[in-house]
Design brief:
The protein has about 625 residues and is of the alpha/beta class. It is built from 23 helices and 17 strands. Strand 3 and strand 4 form a beta hairpin.
């Protein structure tokens, strides 16, 4: 089994002096690591001594334009030691040729798959895949240029070898996928029983990083629950395996008539409490691990809400950005052609998520209705003229602010006058801004994939409308600064170093790492309301908890979308349109119930209300106990 680079124990960052000394011992002087090298050429390939010739490799460096100009010249930097010069007087003169070659770009990219080691007292370059060296690993990658035995690196061209094929495969994979160069972060658990659950998950799905992270957070919160009742270990093991995972291809045709194929996912994680509800995400980085993590989180979120529902998630690695309406329609229709048989009001109804809005949901439901042959329910999220409630899209963002207000009320504080930083600039983030302004808070930031925007004067309703226009026209948030002089856009940065009282991460999972967590603490943040699922890395969570930053988990704070979806699907609600006031009143009541359930569960297992872990652990405990009871009652199914 192939492991990530970080797990191979390979020495890719060798001590510079050690490498230079080895190079000198083999008649190779490196002028400076990373620069071009001269090689002393000895006997040819047909010389019997070639097989025992020691080799050494220098680190990779990508060529520059200046390099190509200089490569026309021959530079001599080889130098023999005094002992070698004395020996050369008694030996026949060698045929010498001075050559200067630089790394090709493709070999620089794959150099990390090789490493230097000593065998039988001689430094050699080994393939980090097969752990072998040999002549096939030393062929000249430059064809007829230079000498046939030019000793450049372990990744010199050997098209028929395992090394070349595997390195090429890994190189291509690294261009399209995020390669994890470090081991999965495993939290220390007090209970061996709880640790066994993590070990089993790691053994079964070792490469599903996002899913393993979500499992670890849940098991960590459930340690005291599992310690009181060992029966829950078996329940947890069953819960962590989804009831159904559908993986399928999605072929579609663009406006030029060219065919494309994407991958679709739908994970129906658990239906013990009721039919599945969960989002669809269209994003280039979407994969099975993310679908499972989202489905697991949605299962707990739905169980914690006032409505008893199962959890699901799915989507595709399709990127809707830059696509025409017709292309998106054709993709959505192809997507639903495969998945529709698993959907229905009593089975599974998808909802909006990242990359999926009212347009996409409309196309999906239209094709579903056509295939099903009747108007059976509706997907949660589309427009009012074929759905129920009038504030569906606002529900999640508004719910986050309501939840923050509940936390502050218990501290005898309020949102009015507090500085708030918000990440993201999608539906959730914009509705968070709206409700923060309504409560008198001062939201100062939004962000996108390329940086963040800060307005020291704070946003107002006019500015939010302007931001929406910018997003609708697919422009950069940078354009906002051209109109409002007191604002500034920071490229390749995050908003977590801005002075604030409350933070609302609403962009993407793992958007807050350890450094960002330290920045938040130094910026004065005291409360973090999770708008996106699992926005903090495990290391960031540890830092925030040690600093007593109160975290409101997404499965509790983000329950507003679940509430609105169920109000839409309620038959009585579909016969009328809710007024904004009535809808907000019901949403606030549902968020209050969720908040109280989380605190009660935390208190039942010994977590103090003031503890930064109270809401996180309480939410997981309350949700898990609901699901576990239903699974126990229904038997082993």
């Amino acid at each position: 089994m192939l492991l990530p680079v970080g797990g191979l124990g390979m020495n890719t960052s060798m001590d510079d002096m050690n490498l230079i000394q080895q190079a000198q011992r083999h008649h190779l002087v490196v002028r400076e690591l990373g620069e071009e090298i001269d090689l002393e050429i000895g006997p040819g390939d047909d010389d019997p001594s070639f097989a025992s010739t020691p080799i050494i490799g220098g680190p990779a460096r990508e060529p520059s334009a200046e390099d190509h100009d200089e490569s026309k010249h021959v530079v001599l930097i080889s130098q023999l030691s005094n002992d070698d010069q004395d020996m050369s007087k008694t030996q026949p003169a060698k045929r010498k040729k001075k050559v200067v070659k630089r790394w090709r770009e493709e070999w620089a990219d794959t150099y990390k798959w090789a490493y230097v080691d000593v065998k039988d007292g001689t430094a050699r370059i080994f393939c980090s895949v097969c752990k072998e060296y040999g002549r096939k690993h030393r062929r000249n990658p430059y064809g007829n240029e230079g000498s046939r035995n030019m000793q450049m690196s372990a990744l010199e061209e050997h098209n028929n070898s395992l090394l070349h094929k595997e390195a090429l495969r890994l190189q291509m994979a690294s261009k399209d996928k995020i390669i994890v160069d470090k081991p999965i972060y495993v939290k220390a658990l007090m209970s061996k029983t709880a640790g066994s659950i993590i070990e089993a998950a790691l053994k079964r799905d070792p490469h599903e990083v996002e899913f393993i992270q979500a499992v670890q957070e849940a098991v960590h919160a459930l340690e005291r629950v599992i310690a009181k009742n060992a029966h829950y270990v078996n329940i947890m093991e069953r819960l962590l395996e989804p009831e159904r995972m559908v993986l399928f291809r999605v072929p579609w045709v663009d406006d030029r008539g060219e065919t494309h194929v994407n991958r679709g996912f739908r994970v129906q994680f658990n239906q013990a409490l009721g039919p599945c509800r969960g989002g669809l995400r269209f994003h280039p980085l979407m994969n099975l691990s993310i679908a499972k993590f989202l489905g697991f989180e949605q299962t707990l979120k739905n169980a914690l809400s006032p409505y008893k529902l199962g959890g699901a998630a799915g989507g595709s690695d399709f990127d809707p950005r830059g696509k025409s309406d017709n292309e998106i329609m054709r993709f959505c229709q192809s997507f639903i052609n495969e998945i529709y048989r698993y959907l229905g009001p009593d089975k599974d109804l998808p909802s909006e998520e990242m990359g999926v809005g009212t347009r996409e949901m409309g196309y999906l439901f239209g094709q579903y209705r056509r295939l099903a042959g009747h108007f059976e329910g509706s997907f949660t999220g589309p427009r009012i003229f074929w759905s129920g409630s009038s504030l569906r899209t606002e529900a999640t963002g508004y719910g986050l602010v309501f939840f923050a207000q509940l936390i502050l009320a218990d501290m005898n504080k309020e949102l009015k006058g507090l500085r708030c930083v918000v990440s993201g600039s999608g539906k959730i983030a914009m509705h968070v801004l709206e409700k923060l302004i309504a409560y008198g808070a001062l939201p100062i930031t939004v962000s996108d994939s390329k940086g963040y925007l800060v307005d020291e004067d704070g946003f107002d309703y006019v500015k939010i409308s302007f931001l929406r226009d910018i997003k609708a026209q697919q422009k950069s948030l940078r354009d906002y600064s051209k109109t409002y002089a007191r604002s500034k856009y920071y490229d390749e940065a995050k908003p977590w170093n801005e002075r604030c009282d409350v933070a609302f991460p609403c962009a993407y999972h793992n958007e807050i790492d350890q450094t960002d967590a330290i920045n938040l603490i130094n910026s004065g943040c005291r409360i973090l309301i999770e708008g996106s699922n699992m926005p903090c890395t495990p290391e960031a969570v540890d830092v925030l908890r040690k600093a007593n930053i109160l975290i409101a988990p997404a499965m509790a704070a983000g329950a507003g979308g679940v509430v609105a979806g169920e109000l839409e699907l309620n038959h009585a609600c579909n016969l009328m349109h809710w007024s904004p006031e009535d809808f907000e009143s019901k949403l606030q009541e549902a968020m209050k119930q969720t908040y109280q359930r989380a605190l009660k569960a935390a208190a039942d297992f010994g977590y103090q209300k003031e503890s930064p872990e109270a809401l996180v652990h309480g939410a997981v405990i309350s949700a898990f106990l609901s699901v576990a009871q239903a699974m126990t009652d229904q038997g082993c199914v």
